[in-house]
Amino acid sequence: MTQTLDTGEELSPAADRGPVSSEAQDILESNLGKFILTAFLFLVMLTWCSVRSHYLEGGRDDVGDNLVPLWIRACVLVALLIPLLVALKQDRQLCWLVGLSAAVGAVPLLPLLPFLRDYTHLAVLAWLLILPPVLLQRVPISRVPMFLALYIAYIATCAFSAVINYVHLHNIWQIKVGVAFLILFGGFGYVMAAIVGQPLRAEARFRSLLDGFVWGAFAQAAVAVIALPLLLLSPFTFGNDTIFGLAYFDKYKSTFSGPVSLGIFFVISVPLLLIWLDVKGRSSWLAKLYLQFAPWIMMATGSRTARIAEIGMICMLLLLPKSRMRTLAFLPSALVAYIVGFQYQALPPAIFRFFSTDVDPSRDMSDRFFVVTDRIEFTKETIAEMAQESAFVKFFGFGPGTGGYRTSGFPTPHNMLLNQWAETGVIGTLALIGFMVLLIWGLAKYGLSRSPGADQGWILLIAIASFAAVNATYTPHYWGYVMVLLLLASTKIIAFRTEQPAGTMQSCADAKRLS
Predict the structure, then answer these.
(1) Which among 461, 446, 491 is positioned nearest to 320, based on CA atoms?
(2) pTM, rounded to two decimals
(3) Phi, psi of 251 (to 5 degrees)
(4) Which tens digits make up the pLDDT trace of 99-108?
(5) Which residues, 6 or more positions from 262, have their beta carbon under 8 angstroms from its beta carbon?
(6) Is 148 inside any structural domain?
(7) Does the pLDDT value for residue 412 go beyond 90?
């Protein structure tokens, strides 16, 4: 039996089966298969972190991945691609793997694309190598939602800016970062287009993406169970790649590129985990443990931004009846974590101060927690520089990826809006803001509807709002897991729109029967 919509799309039970047998597919969809894939990917990443830390001598000299032999980096990348071959041409498994990849962290430095490393992740490789050919179909113009059209306009602006600036300035570094970021944005746009092209599968893909993300979050928590005791045993080790590559000095960063991105990951993982529990329709002891432990891991990153964002996230979850009881269940653990570590730069000194007087007083941030003087100076410098540039730069920027590097000579505002203005100008900034606004509006409409899962729309909005504070000091829209979060939001909006015609027709039929 097949189902059809007025879009002309057909969906059959075997529609997403590929060359792998049904028995093998059942294994891949089982918890055992998911565990094996998750364990494999994280073992590869942990090995990579340890090897990198060894070659960099703990990051004492602040050097990059180039000290690690190229053949080792290549082997790591090949190993990360193996799960893609297992899930080849299987829709649900590929989407699940993209969700999982949000938690994998920073992959090795890519040859010829040196500035993609900090923000790339397995999802980019999956999108480029596997997902587009499998999922992408021709999408009628009438079925392209406005948020996707604005994101395509943003990608086009990035490409135009990168090319014109290279022709004008002949800056090789500029075109390198431009190509790197276009690969990232292009892959993300491909997946959104694929979801729009097959709206009947949007809900199934949403659940696969979400399930993969939660498995990755559980895996990161498991890594923290091992890494945090090691961090406490070595309370302050000099270097930006310490504790087998899992720490930045005494701040926990796991397999991510830095403590801030990891801290925000654990913040937004909480609302997504609550949606996962709602989709499953049952409780989970593992989820309960995770909710109790997540605030402590976030605190161990030492991120001030994450600590502020978590307060806002908890308050919003408490306001929503659907999530209130589960939030109250982990609130005591979160309060204790804040009492212990809120004012300290890292978790080890925050804990040791209760048992020893020999704790460096400079680790206490109570007198400077909200000090952002350096960020204000970056903002002033960027505004002054952009005011003196040509009309073309003001409207189209210096090209994607040029911001954020103090030695590049380009503006480095450390602010999402100003960074976009410097990179893509007024045109690109407005396109990206419009994309985000329409996503938020779509989720709000879903939350206000009478659909059975309408609360999921509000909780997704809470997840997006949870990293809103990061935009003041960073540019998180191209962080790997933030892109997966935006993909979850766009998928849920398409699924909601697909449900609407059926619900409308049912209401009309009921009205006729009553009359």
Answers:
(1) 461
(2) 0.88
(3) -100, 135
(4) 888 898 888 8
(5) 220, 252, 253, 254, 256, 301, 303
(6) yes
(7) no
Q: What Å distances lie between residue 428 and 146, 222, 422, CA to CA?
A: 15, 40, 10
Compute CA distances 19 → 10, 34, 92, 197, 212, whole Å. Answer: 20, 19, 14, 22, 22
CA 121 vs. chain centroid, Å, equals 10
Sign of CA dihedral 19, 24, 30, 33: negative
Check if the beta carbon of residue 483 is closer than 8 Å to that of residue 188. yes
C-alpha to C-alpha distance for 110 and 78, rounded to whole angstroms: 12
Contact assessment for residue 203 and residue 495, using Cβ atoms and an 8 Å cutoff = yes
Strands (E), 237-287: 247-248, 251-252
Give the range of the structural domain holding residue 200, as residue numbers without chain letter: 141-498
- Tell me, what DSSP letter sits at residue 66? G
Looking at residue 114, its pLDDT comes to 56
Strand partners, 110: 113
Per DSSP, the three-state class of 247 is strand
Mean pLDDT of all residues in 172-196? 81
- Does residue 250 form part of some domain? yes
Q: Give me the DSSP letters along 175-243.
A: HHHHHHHHHHHHHHHHHHHHHHH-GGGHHHHHHHHHHHHHHHHHHHHHHHHHHHHHHHHSS---SSSBT
Q: Say if 479 falls within a structural domain.
A: yes
| Three-state SS at 113 | strand
163 sits in which H/E element:
helix 146-169
Q: What are the beta bridge partners of residue 113?
A: 110
Cβ(416)–Cβ(474) below 8 Å:
yes
Task: Give the 3-state secondary structure of residue 364.
Answer: strand
* Local structure of residue 3 (DSSP, 8 states): E
Burial tier of 220 (Cβ tally within 10 Å: 0-12, 13-18, 19+): buried
Q: Kindly tell me if the per-residue pLDDT of 452 is higher than 60.
A: yes
CA–CA separation, 248 vs 236, rounded Å? 10
The answer to whether residue 136 sits within a structural domain is no
Region 374-398: mean pLDDT is: 86
The residue behind tokens 């570590």 is 341
Query: In this structure, how many other beta carbons lie within 10 angstroms of the beta carbon of residue 139?
Result: 18
Q: What is the end-to-end Cα distance of the chain in Å, rounded?
A: 33
Sign of the dihedral defined by the CA atoms of residues 29, 32, 36, 42, in that order: positive
DSSP one-letter code for 344: B
Q: How far apart are CA 186 and CA 183, in angstroms?
A: 5
Confidence grade of residue 5 (pLDDT, cut at 50, 70, 90): very low
How many domains is the chain partitioned into structurally?
A: 1
- Tokens encoding 329: 């269940």
Counting Cα atoms < 13 Å in the Cβ hemisphere of 178 gives 23
Q: How far is CA 201 from the centre of its chain?
A: 22
In angstroms, the CA 29 to CA 26 distance is 5
Beta carbons of 91 and 470 less than 8 angstroms apart: no
